[in-house]
Design goal:
The protein is an all-beta fold and 129 residues long. The protein contains no helices and 12 strands.
């Protein structure tokens, strides 16, 4: 088609199909025997940034600030707490010592017992001579 010639529709093709977001391309072709045109094309559906799910309707924006610490699952957009964080909005820091039932520390004859619930109990250690 030349730049000075009017645009003219040679053939039209309409399809309707239910598609979900995917990394895979869908390939289709359309053949018109009356005009001798073979149209081959590929397409895919991709969600906008921070939108996830089958209908791109689930919004999730990764954060790492005072409002929460998470990433978003690539397929569903569900929040995944960053390492060391927990809670609905990944706002509660986890202490490494909470992994165990308790930890014993000995400092100058005083036994400090830290329990998994975060409480600290001090007991005087008796020395035997």
């Amino acid at each position: 088609m030349h730049a000075d010639s009017p645009r003219q529709l040679v053939v039209g093709h309409v399809i309707s199909m239910d598609m979900k977001p995917s990394t895979n391309w869908t390939k289709l072709h359309y053949n018109t025997s009356d005009v001798g045109i073979l149209l081959e094309y590929a397409f895919r559906v991709v969600c906008d940034v921070n939108y996830y799910g089958a209908g791109c309707s689930h919004y999730c924006r990764p954060r790492n600030d005072t409002h929460g610490h998470w990433t978003c699952a690539p397929d569903t957009g569900q929040k995944r707490c960053l390492p060391g964080w927990q809670g609905t909005y990944c706002e509660t820091g986890r202490s490494e010592w909470r992994c165990c039932s308790f930890v014993h520390l000995f400092v100058s004859g005083i036994k400090v017992r830290r329990q998994a619930n975060g409480q600290t109990n001090k007991h005087t250690q008796k020395r035997r001579y």
